[in-house]
């Protein structure tokens, strides 16, 4: 038992060290991997508790009760009725789960539920930037549907069910292609085979201009200024977008991404043919979004899920609800 205490202390210290190094920026953390390992380790302790440690403690408690009963019988034969010691208390101490099982096997049900929900149903995210304003604001806490586009195995992200095809206008969370350890959120503009053009700040898909309606200017409280606001109808999904008339139309600083030859850049903007198995995404805050115009296409294997609901914004409770 003493060995298990030391082993468990080392395992817990390793987890704490990993999280600490991640928090301090010394390493790039992987929460999906961390949660998977926590589930596997606590699950192993939980099985060991059910199959080994708990039966062992019960046998020890039964042996204690048998010894106490035998002692009482011997004392009865000697005419002694008063017996020192509380057998029930001693039995409780023997059956009590030690600390190293409390912090492993005891946490397994909760960790397992979180792992299953996050991996296969819904995953929470926090919006860290303004690239999706006005649809999503900084500080919005959102839910992402993990099964709409097909169920994927955790950590390796391999799709195991077909799901519903990605549609234009969906708000998608995905692994940032230049740095897959980071999650990004943008709107799907083009699906495989589409010809997407964003020229002079007008969006066209397959040669058809996306219908746009002018709306009252949007006041950005963080920037403390107004921006031109429009409503787009992309694939039947109506959503609002922002444009800054003072920002240039051309794309400055596009990287040398995979399939860059599918894109043509000019002073007017960019047009791209979306390759098979990839998607073209843009932020709704069109002049303040690092998106496919700059770093290229999102491969299918990078998809995390479809964002659909703001479940909390501590600065504005009116934000709670679904969005397009």
TrEMBL record:
Reaction(s) the record says it catalyses: Cleavage of hydrophobic, N-terminal signal or leader sequences from secreted and periplasmic proteins
What residue intervals traverse the membrane? Answer: 7-25, 31-48, 100-121
Question: Per its record, how is this protein called by name?
Answer: Signal peptidase I
UniProt cross-references to InterPro entries, sorted A to Z: LexA/Signal_pep-like_sf, Pept_S26A_signal_pept_1, Pept_S26A_signal_pept_1_Lys-AS, Pept_S26A_signal_pept_1_Ser-AS, Peptidase_S26
Keyword presence, Ribosomal protein:
no
Q: Where does this protein reside within or beyond the cell? A: Membrane
Task: Give the top-level enzyme category.
Answer: hydrolase
Question: Chief location of this protein?
Answer: membrane
CDD domains attached to this UniProt entry: S26_SPase_I
GO MF entries: serine-type endopeptidase activity; signal peptidase activity
Tell me the Pfam families matching this sequence: Peptidase_S26
Q: What does the record give as EC number?
A: 3.4.21.89
Entry GO CC: membrane
Q: Which organism is it from?
A: Pulveribacter suum
